[in-house]
Amino acid sequence: MDPVIILGILLALLFNFANGLNDAANSIATIIATKALTPLQAVLLAGVFNLLGPLIFTTAIAATIGRGIVDPVFLTPPLLLMGLVGAVIWVLATSYFGIPVSSSHALIGGLLGAGFAAAGIGAIFWPSLALLKQVAIYSLFGAVPGALIAGVLAFWNGTFKPWYLFLGGLIGVTIAIPLAIMTGALKISGILAIILFIVISPMLGFISAFTLGIIVARIFRNYPPRRLTGYFRNLQILSGSLQAAGHGGNDAQNAMGIITAMLLAGGMISEFAVPLWVILASSLAISVGTLLGGWRVVDKMANRITKIRPYQGFCASTAAGGVLSLMNVFGVPVSTTHAITGAIMGVGTTRGYSAVKWGVVREILIAWILTIPAAAIVAGVCFFVARVLISGIM
């Protein structure tokens, strides 16, 4: 086997390990925040279900990562290797500083940067103008009624503010686009899907968790607090398992897509089909990272965004797990960090705007925005440097 491919496989597994290290917070933050499990029990639970996630869901996301970002004509092992380098450096750096970022988006940024450095803008799969128009139409179908409903409700309650129209429109888009995808009316993949769901996935988590939190609070409003706490701490184990499986099913496929693309580029397989050993190795790598735990990230997610009660932890985990499971089925590589952060903000907001520490949220949002371009720049620079130093290979 080509040494570059061997190095690439090892680096892809290292990336999934770093993914689990940073994204451990996605699976266990709410469980730790409400003390439903001890930290050790929580990481063990997350590790097991992160391993099972890719075996439960399809490998559609692996195909998106390996075939839907950069034109396969340009996907050489060195390009994939430098894309991984950019992603790994960014994820490890942010993990060190305790910043919850999207490992999926770091990898996508790395591939974009390495692809651009290798073959220019033409190496990237850009969406067609017709598809962009179609997305704009469906967005309007959601935004207009969403803004109108929000405006009418605000006037009805005597609390109208102009930004309510924007929020209502954003909620409408968040609902309309996934519905169009689920019904088959809108077929998007690759970069366009990734960019859209940078906004949609946290909003889906927010809306789902907020709605579920309101419903649960209404149904159980007369329950004794101690009984309610014990009941939902037990339920959190189930919802946390769903969330961890969704996390593993989505993020573990990052390495699967890269490794399979490397095997295909190296002529070791004849078509893009993820081998079983790749599924198992990728799943194990992310599970080991989760088991070791990125505790700075866990602390920020569990304790610094909002105070989470057991029933809210259940609602947040259920909402995030549902969003991730849905995206796994449709092969959209969304950020698990975005989904669970949105869900945590959603349950926090059920207690009022001031219940969420928006300064911490702002810091997280900045990291989200920087992830794709930062990883792209690092990968592009690494590719140019490697080309100069090892011109015969690159």
Structure, described:
This protein has 394 residues and is mostly helical. The chain has one domain (3-127, 188-389). It is 78% helix and 0% strand. It has 15 helices and no strands. It is globular, with a radius of gyration of 21 Å. The mean pLDDT is 81.
Properties at a glance:
mainly alpha, 78% helix, globular
Please state the average pLDDT score.
Answer: 81
Beta fraction:
under 5%
- The tally of domains stands at 1
The dominant shape is globular
Biggest beta sheet summary: none
* Annotation field: number of helices: 15
Q: Determine the fraction of residues in helical runs and give it as a percent range.
A: over 70%
* Oligomeric state of this protein: single chain
What is the helix/strand order? HHHHHHHHHHHHHHH
Structural class: mainly alpha
Rounded Rg = 21 Å
Q: How many strand units? A: 0
First-last Cα distance: 17 Å
**Uncertain regions spanning at least 5 consecutive residues:** none
Can you describe this structure in just a few lines?
The protein has helices at residues 3-33, 39-56, 60-67, 77-96, 103-119, 129-157, 163-182, 190-219, 225-251, 253-265, 276-292, 295-304, 310-330, 336-349, 358-389. The protein is mostly helical and 394 residues long. It has one domain (3-127, 188-389).
